[in-house]
From TrEMBL:
Protein name, per record: Peptide O-xylosyltransferase
Source organism per UniProt: [Ruminococcus] torques
Any one annotated GO CC term: membrane
Listed GO MF terms: metal ion binding; protein xylosyltransferase activity
A single BP term in Gene Ontology: chondroitin sulfate proteoglycan biosynthetic process
Membrane association type: Single-pass type II membrane protein
Top-level taxon: Bacteria
Locations listed in the record: Endoplasmic reticulum membrane; Golgi apparatus membrane
InterPro entries (alphabetical): Glyco_trans_14, XYLT
Amino acid sequence: MKKHAYLIMAHHQFEILMIFLRLMDHERNDFYIHIDIKTKDIPIEKIRNSVKYSRIEFINRMSVNWGGYSQIECELNLLKQALRGEYDYYHLVSGIDMPIKTKNKILDYFENKENTQYVHFEQKQIQDKYLDRIRYWYPFQEKVKKGYIYYLMGQVLLKIQKLFGVNRIKIENEFQFGANWFSITHEFAQYVVSQEKWIKKRFSMTTCADEIFLQTVLINSPFKNELPREAFEGDYSSCLRHIDWKRGNPYIFRKSDFEELISAKELFARKFDWNIDKEIIYQLKNYLEKEGEYETNEKDSSVDTMLQ
């Protein structure tokens, strides 16, 4: 039976994280958690006590900044730590994601899947506006949230680079763009980590390249034929995540979206906000726990029938 590693990037709203852990608690699921070093008052023991059967491992903390290479570095660190456990699948989620199927259904979904990389691609060919993220140098990207001056300096430098025709990707492989959340096999996870030097050279001092690097590594690798059929249709089901960019950036689910979520074909959903609508989180929690009990009773009942 397949084993799974959940790679979780968290920095706040740990109530959601603890519910996620409780819902996914299973002897075949382990959790590798990164909590941003800028975050204070972390309920470590409460997080650990959220599970009975799974193993939780906190990886070394670092500062992860929006749009910076630190996001890619954190993902690679999570992969490297989890690879030691030799899991069948590695799932990257955020600390404000939720499952929308029971843990047993999620486990069953992957049980018969062989060599499939669940990665999202927006289109068959990357749009030029996304190439701008990696075409120029963005040395202030890690600091843009720390002060407006860094944003202004970055904009000035960008205009100068455009004026002089700077292009970091003149002779390169194919680039691709999509959501940064994924579910990938052990073999591909190993391959990604093996490309760390190339990834750092290509994507350091870029902006928002966490939505480019994995797709690019994959499409230029021997694993490019292991994508689901809908991978290039812009459908988030290709990465098994229910995400809505039409109503928000992305949209934050509310209690009015409950039926939409439980009837969706994907396995996970993002994003949720404890302060905006905690009711939808409780609705999903109660529903999935009830469904899980029903599935367990059904399984026990079928076993009893066979033994009669």
